[in-house]
Amino acid sequence: MPELELMIMIVLMVATLVPIAAMLVWFERRLLGFFQQRYGPNRVGYFGILQSLADLIKILFKHDWIPPFADRPVFVLAPLIGAMAILMSFAVVPMAPGLVVSDSNIGLLFFLAMTSMAVYSVVLAGWASNNKYAVLGGMRAAAQTISYEVFMGVSLLGVVILSGSFRLSDIVLAQQDIWFVVPQFIGFVVFIIAGVAESHRLPFDLPEAETELTAGFHTEYSGIKFALFFLGEYLGMMLISMMITTLFLGGWLGPWLPPFVWFVLKTMSLICFFILLRAALPRPRFDQLLEFGWKWMLPLALLNLVGTAVVKLWGSF
Amino acid sequence: MSAQILFYISGSIAILASLFVVTNKNAVHALLYLVVSLLALAMCFYLLGAPFAAALQIIVYAGAIMVLFVFAVMIFNINQTDIDREKHWLTWQSWVGPSLLVMVLLAEIVFVILSNQNWSTNPSSAVQIELVDARAVGTLLFGPYLLAVEIASFLLLAGLVGGYHLAKELPKRTTKDGGR
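The joint structure predicted for all components is written out below.
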């Protein structure tokens, strides 16, 4: 029964990814505390490991309030769209040979499509809240994501040219000689920056910049709906780390250790890197963010694409 | 067989969502139905054996162009008065003309489907799947359809120039009316 196997696989994936994303909240707070010479949450369980569980219980018992001035159906739908879209994209990530829900021949495009659908969550949350801070946050999110999506796609085309496939497992196998981070270093850097911007992580979390927009697009959200936004953000960070691992760092490839362990190790170190970024970098101004995107990242990504194409064609003659 | 059922389901979703797009009074809700309709169309493309077109449909239409639409409508600050006005405009008289035209189109499609011998004699072959991958799309676009691609890019270039013209910073005038 291949269908049954697939269903079990999907259920297992969701049942592991969601708790891991919740644990990441605790992990990030501990790590940030470490970077800033303080303890971070260390009271609940050993080393505070049950902090996320305590937060979850608290958040579940909160009053699930919808503001009377909000657009009810869209207000409820918005947090769901984000978490769903990101969870869907995990379906195409190969974590080990054969350990993938759908090894689709358009896997990479599916990932791009789902990340572009995740924007709606933020934009609609901002609009449905009917609150000026939330709308400003939503507008920023829309502008930021559309801009950074463009060269996120362009930066990946170099990888596609080198491996000749959109299938993620083919891309991993094409890196057996050399990881794509070496020939595609510019693409790698551009993709990391675009990935941070797409998942609205600091330093690119302008849609929810608390100093100027209270909490941005989720100002009016509380209880379990707020938790869904939070979950979406951490799932997004995991997804971006997994995609960088798959596309540039050779996926599950590596000596001695089993493939899955390599995949987890690479992904975890990237997640730590993202958390370090949050602790280390200040937030730019919004116009600086967009200018940086269009005037530096896009030309760089295009040059990388042209260069890769020239080298590939040169080699084939 | 299951692909055929999936195709009909997503096709009906596309039709229903498109109906809601034209009948909905709230502009943002209408746009959301349009997104659903585009997603359902992408599903249809995929089931018809064009995965590349399906992915591009989601990335370009549902993911980029519609976000811009929602973005623009968001700034209009739609409230209950706008919805009431829309309700006032959408009377049954205004539906007569478009409905008649759509009926003609529907009749044409039914006629085409019925006149096609292959389909009418063998309805199960109505959905014939031939996989068109990215490579095939590329060779077609930059082979026989190169001229169409170039014309489309010219149209986009015109849009780009227009956008630049609208957003261009005007030179400050030093006239009597306050330099505006």
